[in-house]
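Most newcomers find our protein records easier to grasp once they have seen one. There is nothing in a record beyond a sequence line and a structure line. Getting from the letters to the tokens is the skill we practise here. An example says more than a description, so a record of this kind follows:
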Amino acid sequence: MVGWIKGERVGREVQLESERRLISLQVYYYFSSIKLSEPPKMVPVAFSQDVAQEGSFAQAVCTVTEGDEPIKISWTFHGAGISSDLGIVTQNIGARTSILLIGSVGYRHRGSYTCMASNRAGSVSSSAELKVNGSGDISAD
């Protein structure tokens, strides 16, 4: 192992002196720009009403307010992907907004919905609970 004593830059050349010899290196570099990617940030997700009545319409909006594009937005229900079999539709609106729609709320729709947004710098999520009031609603006191 060589212990470096002195290093000096002269134009494009860097001269390094060690205990035993002088080494000259030519250094070429080019920086067009350095930009750090910004992770997404979002507005908290909420349903249009606190408690949905069975048979009514419900919606939640997921909006990403900050972060570099491209941004991927997706939804889960109880931690799993949303299936159209449940009567739930998700639709992206532009690059930063996604809407979740339930045309006719049923007791099976109650639970936790999560919107996730990600880009190459990171990810963020927000969850909202849908409460359903109707014939299938069994309350525990």
Summary: The chain has a mean pLDDT of 83. Residues 41-133 form a domain with the Immunoglobulin-like fold (CATH 2.60.40.10). Residues 75 and 115 are 5 Å apart (CA to CA). The chain is about 0% helix and 50% strand.
